[in-house]
Write a structure and sequence with these properties.
The protein is of the alpha/beta class and about 280 residues long. The chain folds into 2 domains: about 200 residues, TIM Barrel (Alpha-Beta Barrel), CATH 3.20.20.70; about 60 residues, no CATH class. The strands form 3 sheets. Strands 1-2-3-4-5-6-7-8 form an 8-stranded parallel beta barrel. Strand 1, helix 1 and strand 2 form a beta-alpha-beta unit.
Length: about 280
């Protein structure tokens, strides 16, 4: 069985409402991703904004971009950001010959994430993220299957509140995975917690499916079963309406749960099924 462990919401910025973000992380399994790089860009928050991130709930990951990623590979750490405070560090980009067993990473004591455009490799000490989009919001037609490695793996590429269900349906096999969202949870290039919350609702809150009814004619009337529970008048014959609520189980099958029953006229009970 495939199991979504958490969602990484990448792109915390200087306008993020951290009180709201904390509320979301207390309801859903969230990892907050911070882009770390150089240059003037809304997606690269100030060091003081990053400090605020550690006051709220949820895992934290640092996503190193451009020169910051290349420096990290060479063992050079950012001067104004303590990477050891994060749970995971992601090296953005597809670096040939990347050796994940860097001594600097071992000293930090954090989990490393590397990106792949292809299948997941059997690597012991890193988490792999399938990311053919590279932050451009492009959804892949096909994604690698789970099961090629026992490690936790990730998926990215155009995932947001409108696409999250379709993306998860593309993932085949059995295993643990996470999703990474970035471009599709921004509005006017600012991190949008409304979209974050919408995506979490879509994937973590199983919607109640339509109710199912069973209507049966009984032998007898109000003298045996009492007055119609809808209109309060006598009925002969009397009918029984049993209502079941349904939910989709994790294996995709529909489960039926008894909700209530009512006795009454056929016409009265029929109206209840049409609401």
């Amino acid at each position: 069985m495939k199991h979504l462990e958490f969602i990484t919401c990448t792109g915390i910025d200087d306008k993020t409402d951290f009180e709201w973000a904390n509320d979301i992380a207390n309801k859903y399994p969230i990892e907050w991703g911070v882009l770390i790089g150089h240059g003037e860009n809304n997606r690269f928050p100030k060091p003081e904004t990053i400090d605020k991130l550690f006051s709220i709930s949820g895992q934290k990951s640092a996503h190193l971009c451009g020169k910051a990623a290349r420096d990290f590979i060479l063992g050079r750490m950012p001067k104004d950001i303590d990477l050891s405070r994060f749970d995971r560090i992601q090296i953005n980009g597809y670096h040939k010959g990347l050796n994940p067993n860097l001594s600097a990473i071992e000293d930090l004591g954090v989990q490393l994430i590397i990106q792949t455009k292809d299948t997941f490799q059997d690597q012991d000490r890193v988490h792999q993220l399938f990311d053919p989009s590279g932050g451009r919001g492009l959804t892949p037609d096909v994604v690698p299957s789970l099961g090629s490695t026992s490690k936790l793996v990730g998926y990215s590429g155009g995932i947001g509140p409108l696409t999250i269900h379709n993306y998860v349906n593309k993932i085949k096999g059995a295993g643990r995975f996470w999703l990474d969202m970035e471009s599709a949870i921004r509005t006017d290039d600012w991190f949008d917690l409304r979209k974050v919350e919408m995506a979490c609702l879509q994937i973590f809150e199983k919607p109640r499916m339509p109710e199912v009814y069973r209507l049966k004619k009984l032998k007898g009337g109000s003298d045996k079963y009492g007055l119609c529970e809808c209109c309060g008048k006598t009925a002969d014959p009397i009918y029984l309406l049993v209502t079941y609520r349904t939910r989709e189980a994790d294996n995709g099958q529909t489960r039926y749960y008894y909700h209530e029953d009512k006795y009454g006229h056929l016409e009265c009970l029929s109206e209840l099924t049409e609401k």
